Amino acid sequence: MCERGHRGGGDEGSGEENRRCSGVLEGREASTTTTTTSSSGKKRLYYKFGDIKDGQVCAPVIVRRVLEEEGWREAGEDVAWNLFWKSGRFTVGEYDRARSFDQRLNHFAKSGQICTKDSLVRIMRRNKATHGRVYDFVPETYLLPNEYNKFIKSYGEQRDQDTLWICKPTDLSRGQKIFVMKDIRELVYDCSSVIQRYIHNPLLVGGYKFDLRIYVLVSSMHPLKIHLFQDGLCRFGTVPYSKGNYSDIWAHLTNFSINKNSPTYDWDKDTIGVANKWTLRRLTEYLRSRGVPMEAVMLKIKALVILSLVSLPGIVPKTSSGTCFELFGFDVILSSDFKPWLLEVNTSPALGIDCFEDEDVKEPLIRDLLSAVQFGKLSDRKRERKRPWSRRSGTRVLTGKTSDQNENGEGTFQMNHAGQYEQIFPFNQKTFLLSNQLDCAKDPVPIVKQVIAEIKTWKRETMKEIRNQKV
């Protein structure tokens, strides 16, 4: 069994069932040989996995299985791939050699900046400083050791409030070396870390703390197009929550990698049952039955996702984005007042299957992704004109236009859903045009301000519709 390690933006998923190995890959490049056709006469699509350990190709079992069931085949020596999948990052050369008309890679260049704990904090701080309280969905956070003195000042000011803090290493995952503290004397760290004000009043189910794994697909970066998967995972602690037992990791940390070792993991716990996962769909039904306004909660989560990603086109270079897509895992916690808080963003969300809930969510997650990224259209496309090379940078330049745009960057908005993937941005004609303007703007800040204004209007009007439906 081959197990992939993650650093920084990786995920906390387990390794036991996470990966399958097949064959040996010796760094071969995409062939230019024409791909074969299936018995139906349709051009067959081919995949390639890029994670290698001990000379073996490592791949998420669910990804390989869905691809095979959909008629894909693994690319051989003499066949060009259409999908190149990695948990880690691609090299500049791998981006450069990808053909825009029929090849896709599952990460954008530099998108991982939003997925390391320290970089996420910096990006959200910058956005909040520029755009105000609309970005008030990230808990108060300090970077250690550089901001130790700032943390000490805040700690002293809040000491009488019985405030808890959670400390997390920036480059580790799966809950490693995470701890909750109350007294400064408990703060011990041996690597770069973030220390964050702990959400002490989490919404509970049956007395247990939980967080949400929200799956988000960016099918296009230039212009930005975001899809939210309508199901997800809810992960519980395995010991009842109490603010007083903050040293009990099984009560305060919801990571599967930690809770699978809890002595109560297999117990039939009050309300949540055995193990520690529900689907988001089940949680939504449960909370709605108890009066929680889940339509409003999900609206806030959608806004949180859009606001988190709207600055990403300014980070990701256009020269590689035309051949890429990316699946992100947003970790969100709800406080008792139903406010969603962003904890982390993962660039390679765990795709291992450890329980029925994993299978129920992740199988359609991957199957519908193939439709959302429109792989089915790759075989029908005519070869595009070669992208021109920039003499100054030595890289190829993309126009950033979509099929719905004319030469003036104008066009007609279309809402494109695919299976359980709901397009959440752009969400109307105005944001469609703003997305295209954002793609070309030398100074994106004024465009982002207009996007934020549209998000506020959208939230306000949608909330009005929700209230009217209840009357």
TrEMBL record:
**Keywords for this entry?**
ATP-binding, Ligase, Nucleotide-binding
Spell out the InterPro entries in the cross-references. Answer: TTL/TTLL_fam
Entry GO terms, CC: ciliary basal body
Q: Where is the composition biased (Basic residues)?
A: 384-394
UniProt record, GO biological process: microtubule cytoskeleton organization
Q: Does the keyword Cell inner membrane apply?
A: no
* Top-rank taxon: Eukaryota
Q: Which Gene3D superfamilies match?
A: ATP-grasp fold, B domain (3.30.470.20)
Output compositional bias ranges, type Polar residues.
400-412
Basic and acidic residues: bias regions: 1-20
Could you tell me which residues belong to the region Disordered? Answer: 1-39, 384-412
Asked if ATP-binding is a keyword of the record, the answer is yes
GO MF annotations, alphabetized: ATP binding; tubulin binding; tubulin-glutamic acid ligase activity
Q: What PANTHER family would the database entry show?
A: TUBULIN POLYGLUTAMYLASE, TUBULIN POLYGLUTAMYLASE TTLL2-RELATED
Q: Give the protein name, as stated in the record.
A: Tubulin polyglutamylase
Organism (species): Chloropicon primus
